[in-house]
């Protein structure tokens, strides 16, 4: 189900990309998450980060991590530790992170310095959004306020991966929005509406399982029928060969007897 501009903000976890790099030989990564820059078309929706998007995250001094490739076990910096620093300017959210002297930090530094990886991704939860219908098949969602969770460097293929297409297609067939379900699963407490939506997904999954089991039973029946038919054909062929052999022997005896006479 495609969200509308009147929907309440949802807790999706989004990924974006932008350029970044190292400054001279310093082990500090610097980059900018640009404001008022439209994302690529994502399932009929384009998103735009407004200049107010990160204000609350910065004001609250919320914990934000810098990760290597979205791997939560590979931490490169932290806002609370002061190794990840962020501030907002007119053009976007500027950040810099001091890379640690670790295997992950050294790997990140070399990949960025060599130019092998020049994009980054960042994850956030939208808090306030504003929808505008561009046309019947395309909406614009402006992110007015978000909760920034992490910034990841050395991400080879940022944004939504193609592997999600089948999953989103399934939820669309269920009449449910994939991102909405994903947001519900992150909540500590579920409302009755949340429970209803999750039950609908479960019901559709169970229906798929039942359908698969029915198909399997049908296939088993078809296979059994085919096997039986094959056995009957083999038996008929064997019987035909036996009759032919008997006839051949009978003809041999007949000719032999006639020759003796």
Description:
The chain has 261 residues and is an alpha+beta fold. The protein has helices at 55-59, 103-114, 165-173, 178-186, 192-260, and strands at 14-15, 18-22, 28-34, 45-49, 65-68, 71-78, 84-88, 92-98, 119-135, 138-153. Strands 1, 2, 3, 4, 5, 6, 7, 8, 9 and 10 form a ten-stranded mixed sheet that branches. Strand 7 and strand 8 (92-98) form a beta hairpin. The protein starts with 13 loop residues before the first strand and ends with a helix.
Q: What's the SSE blueprint?
A:
Blueprint: E1 14-15, E2 18-22, E3 28-34, E4 45-49, H1 55-59, E5 65-68, E6 71-78, E7 84-88, E8 92-98, H2 103-114, E9 119-135, E10 138-153, H3 165-173, H4 178-186, H5 192-260
Parallel strand pairs: 4-10, 5-10
Antiparallel strand pairs: 1-9, 2-3, 2-9, 3-8, 5-6, 7-8, 9-10
Largest sheet: 10 strands, mixed
Number of helices: 5
> Which regions are unreliable across 5 or more consecutive residues at pLDDT < 50?
1-17, 159-167
Query: What general form does the structure show?
Result: elongated
Keywords:
ten-stranded mixed beta sheet, 261 residues, disordered N terminus, 40% helix, elongated, alpha+beta
Briefly summarize what is shown.
With 261 residues, the protein is of the alpha+beta class. It has five helices and ten strands, in the order E-E-E-E-H-E-E-E-E-H-E-E-H-H-H.
């Amino acid at each position: 189900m495609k969200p509308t501009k009147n929907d309440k903000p949802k807790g999706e976890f989004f990924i974006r990309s932008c350029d970044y790099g190292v400054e001279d030989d310093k082990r500090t990564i610097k980059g900018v998450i640009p404001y008022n820059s439209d994302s690529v078309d994502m399932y009929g929706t384009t998103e735009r980060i407004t200049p107010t998007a990160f204000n609350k995250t910065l004001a609250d001094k919320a914990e934000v991590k810098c990760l290597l490739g979205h791997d939560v076990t590979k931490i490169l910096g932290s806002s609370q530790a002061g190794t990840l620093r962020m501030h907002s300017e007119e053009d976007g959210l500027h950040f810099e992170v001091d890379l640690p002297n670790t295997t992950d930090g050294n790997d990140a530094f070399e990949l960025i310095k060599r130019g092998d990886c020049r994009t980054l991704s960042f994850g956030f939860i939208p808090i306030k959004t504003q929808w505008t219908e561009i046309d019947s098949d395309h909406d614009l969602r402006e992110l007015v306020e978000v909760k920034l969770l992490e910034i990841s460097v050395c991400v080879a293929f940022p944004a939504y991966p193609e592997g999600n297409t089948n999953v989103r297609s399934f939820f669309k067939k269920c009449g449910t929005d994939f991102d909405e379900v994903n947001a519900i699963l992150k909540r500590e407490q579920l409302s009755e509406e949340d429970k209803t939506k999750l039950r609908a997904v479960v019901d559709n999954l169970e229906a798929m399982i039942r359908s698969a089991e029915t198909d399997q039973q049908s296939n088993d029946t078809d296979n059994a029928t085919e096997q039986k038919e094959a056995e009957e054909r083999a038996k008929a062929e064997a019987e035909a060969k036996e009759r032919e052999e008997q006839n051949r022997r009978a003809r041999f005896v007949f000719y032999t007897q006639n020759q003796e006479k």
